[in-house]
Amino acid sequence: MFVVAHISDLHFNGTRFNRARIESALNYVNARADGINALLITGDIADEGSPSEYREAHRVIDSPLPTLITVGNHDTREGFREFVLGEPGSAPVNSARLIDGVLFLVVDSSIPGRNDGFIDDDTLTWMSAQITAAGPDTRVLVAFHHPPVVIQMTFMDTIRQTGEERLAELVDQHPNIVGFLCGHAHSACVTRFAGRPLCVAPGVASTLNLPFEGQDIVNRGQPPGVAFHMLDGDRLITHFRSVMF
After folding, report:
1. Does residue 153 contact residue 187 with C-beta atoms inside 8 Å?
2. How much is the pLDDT for 172?
């Protein structure tokens, strides 16, 4: 069984409150690392994209697991690259990694200066090349920040990923894509996209209300959350955990 621990929307902001939530989620995962193959973090590492937030993230994010991270709408590519990756640049933050026979494509759906998402053509071309190089029998998990579908959260649906029909075409070209993993919504959610499971991780920094849960945007009674994705052949199974802090 191949297992991915998935967290998202950490929002480092220098406060003890957010840091305690983040450390609790990481500690929960790390304490169970013997049964997990990889740790995935799908964006919004920083809250405002400031150097101090990325320095804090660099100090705190630590795991014995292979760790894959991309950026969200609250991040800046330059800050993320400098303080998290240790390299300069403003290009999309994309990475491909083969872990225990599973290919992860962790791609940048952010648009600098905006809250909505879009995967550019160059990234889609790169993704296709990576899958082709890995071979048709290699299972592929694709991760990014913004959901490419409506999830019935009024505000978040206005800042989702668009141009998603181009991403769906990638599944037609490469049927060995077995699932999509993302964040952004601060609400654990499972649906389908392009005939594949689409799993949205719960928020670490906060949970956002659904339309019928109240007038407040943030659901303040919810603890940080973790998603565990289990890959059984080509079948993706997701379990969610709330973590006390």
Report:
1. yes
2. 96
